[in-house]
Amino acid sequence: MQGECLCGSVKFEIDGEIRNLYQCHCSLCRKATGAAANAATLVPSSSFRWISGQSGIRSYQKPSGFRCDFCSVCGSPVPNSLRGTEMIWVPAGLLTGLAASRVAVHLHTASAAPWAQESTECVWLEGGPGSLESLNKLL
After folding, report:
1. What integer pLDDT is reported at residue 138 of this predicted model?
2. Within a 10 A sphere around the Cβ of 79, how many other Cβ atoms?
3. Which has the closest alpha carbon to 77: 90, 64, 66, 88?
4. How far are the Cα atoms of 7, 50, 110, 114, 132 from residue 88, in angstroms, in the given order?
5. What DSSP string describes 112-138?
6. In 15-53, at which residue ranges do the beta strands (DSSP E only) sit?
7. In 3D, which of 40, 45, 15 has the Cα closest to residue 94?
8. Burial of 78 by CB count in 10 Å (0-12 exposed, 13-18 middle, 19+ buried)?
9. What is this structure's pTM?
10. What is the pLDDT, as a whole number, of residue 122?
11. Mean pLDDT of successive 10-residue segments in the chain (139 residues)?
């Protein structure tokens, strides 16, 4: 399986099947991604291989040890080694062909953003809204 950042500068491969995913709802993951939750998986480092763009990866680490690596061109979060392990953290959104994988675990739900709950009138569209005006009306 392959993956890449938004601009395509950072590319990687993973050998073997991807296990299921997890979503983390903690405030750090929300801030690192700008989303309600961070969807990711873990793979053995022996199964992971960089294809390109490794020199363009930048890191930010909090004093607590929380670290996020990102593409210096487009800002996408990118895989990183988990300290003290032989595992690589891989953001699910970068992977292609995850047809069989599902979210199996939700973490830190007690600190999930209150706005992450869908309203009872939540609209699901198979594609985009067609226009910014159409989206604004749905909000």
Report:
1. 87
2. 24
3. 90
4. 21, 12, 26, 30, 38
5. --GGGSPPTT----SS--SSHHHHHHH
6. 21-24, 38-44, 48-52
7. 40
8. buried
9. 0.89
10. 86
11. 97 92 94 93 96 97 94 97 94 88 92 84 88 90
